[in-house]
Amino acid sequence: MPKQGEFYQRDRERHPPALDRDYKTSVARSPKYSLISLENTASEITGPVFGHTDFAPTDNDLLTNYAQAGQAPVGERIIVHGRVLDENARPVPNTLVEIWQANASGKYRHKKDNYLGAMDPNFGGCGRTMTDGDGYYYFRTVKPGAYPWRNWVNNWRPAHIHVSVFGTGFAQRLITQLYFEGDPLIDNCPIVKTIPDADAIQQLIAVLDMNASIPLDTLAYKFDIVLRGRRSTLFENRLEGN
Amino acid sequence: MRQKLEYLKETPSQTAGPFVHIGLAPGAAGFDIYDQELGTDIAGPNATGERIRIEGLVIDGIGSPVKDVMLEAWQANAAGIYAHPEHPGEVEEGFRGWGRVITDFDTGEWGFDTVKPGPVMGRNGQMMAPHINLWIVARGINVGLNTRLYFSDEDVANATDPVINLIEWERRRKTLIAQRVERDGAIIYRFDIRLQGDDETVFFDI
After folding, report:
1. Which residue in B23, B125, B203 is closest to A31 by CB distance?
2. What is A162-202 written as a DSSP string?
3. Which residues pair with B179 in a beta bridge?
């Protein structure tokens, strides 16, 4: 296989712009000047490497990782699973995937969350795992609830799970949000709509996966994640100056 | 019909939101769930080189500190080697070169301890001045922001750094230079990041 080179340029038209006036917090937190485009160096092509000693094998089970013995969190039991791929459709193995979410009432276990939804003593709301050799990952959790937030007076976030992924290089670092198929709140969420491309929004909607569900136990949603792909250095390799 | 390209498209980014700590630093959110949180020790105990501390604020366009920001740092060791299989060379046992940085929720001040990185070979045989790569996420930041921190005591290396020199406006280059001070015998570099407004920090599309 040819040696791998730079990452493909990020397609900024499928990502949200820094400034979106309908997502009010972005107004004062968005850089005004253009990003300076940088050709990849070792600083961007490399990134942190994690191993199985970095976390516990049960960290991906949000049904049990904070529950008291013999108890379980309230809510719809779900599996979230899928693959981490790159833009060349190759699996990204052994990469860290982390998630966090509200409980079934739409309440976060965070000292800054003052929503009146009920706290669930058996639900922490975070998990982490590494993809296997085929780029596959899975979590077990409850479906998060929708919740209101201060933007316009009556904005509600669709049910969502925050997802953080590394890949192999710092240039692939990505945080995004997973939404659930059929949720009517998706279409009028100002944060979802920061993404200008309707097709790109579809890529964030996990699909009900009955084949992966466990009968009489747990529903499943499939969510594949795509990270930036890399060039093959067919004709030159000047990254390190040779 | 002409042929088709079979590439996939990168998953679009969404803001990390105000509660990023739950997932990536739950201790800061107010609860302990993991035996070990990741990214709390960047350099490890065995790393050689100068022990330093980086401190700063992330400041919004109004001039207020951003108190719910999370930063990640990625750096080479003192010999200019990244802890990554594709980067030739070895790093010290326990050196990962990556860390997560959370602010004080009341003041927005953040800081992390590490070793000062060495110069790293860049493209076309051009050496890059010592630097730490930073990635910044928060509520209101739709795509994580990438920047680089350089060091004020590296004037000579900074002057020929190929990335600093890509920045057309000379007066913007100084936004990437952390200022070295000594405090109680410790080496501190101050690095305030301005998201917007006067002296907006240079951010990169990497």
Report:
1. B203
2. EEEE--SSGGG-EEEEEEETT-TTGGG-TTGGGS--HHHHH
3. B190
A56 at interface of B, judged by CB pairs closer than 8 A: yes
Instruction: State whether residue A89 sits within 8 Å of chain B by CB.
Output: yes
Task: Assess A159–B contact: CB distance below 8 Å, yes or no.
Answer: no
Positions of A marked catalytic? 108, 147, 157, 160, 162
φ/ψ of B168, rounded to 5, equals -65, -35
> Under an 8 A CB cutoff, do B142 and A49 touch?
no
Query: What residues are paired with B73 via a beta bridge?
Result: B99, B134
Find, among B50, B56, B54, B53, the residue nearest to B77 by Cα. B50
CB-CB under 8 Å, B86 with A14:
no
ipTM for the whole complex: 0.96
Interchain contact, B142 vs A201, CB within 8 Å: no
pLDDT in tens, B67-91: 999 999 999 999 999 999 999 999 9
pTM for this predicted structure: 0.96
In terms of DSSP H, where are the helices of chain A? 26-29, 42-45, 198-202
Q: Is A40 in a helix, a strand, or coil?
A: coil
User: Which of B59, B135, B142 would you mutate first to test chain A, the one with the most A CBs within 10 A?
Assistant: B142
Tell me how far apart the alpha carbons of residues A225 and B200 are, in angstroms, rounded to a whole number. Answer: 32
Cα separation of B174 and B193, whole Å?
Answer: 11
pLDDT digits (tens, 9 = 90+) for A216-232: 999 999 999 999 999 98
